[in-house]
Amino acid sequence: MKLSEKIKAIRLAEGLNQTQLCNMIDLSISTLGKYETGVYEPSGLNLLKITEHPRFEKYSLWLMTGKTAPEVGQIAPTLAHSGQEKEILPHSEKKIG
């Protein structure tokens, strides 16, 4: 997963819109939009704004390395609220209409 996708995944997992996240980490909406679409890579300073914010610290390891360590509170966004991956159910073979 690209860094741009990870930033967006964190925001969505926390139930935030772009404006809310930007207000929390003191970042402009246009800059966040460029990060999330992959137009620009975040600077080290702006990555720190995310990883050092108390609400997002739990994603620091995953954001930087793609790894998790649940035993020390380092998780991926899909684990944030439910504690497990989302289950994908198979499609029904029944035709509709």
Automatic annotation (TrEMBL):
Domain named HTH cro/C1-type: residues: 7-50
SMART domains: HTH_XRE
Pfam family membership, one: HTH_3
Domain of life where this protein originates: Bacteria
InterPro entries: Cro/C1-type_HTH (IPR001387), Lambda_DNA-bd_dom_sf (IPR010982)
GO MF term (any one): DNA binding
The protein, known as: Phage repressor protein C
Species the sequence originates in: Proteus vulgaris
Taxonomic classification: Bacteria, Pseudomonadati, Pseudomonadota, Gammaproteobacteria, Enterobacterales
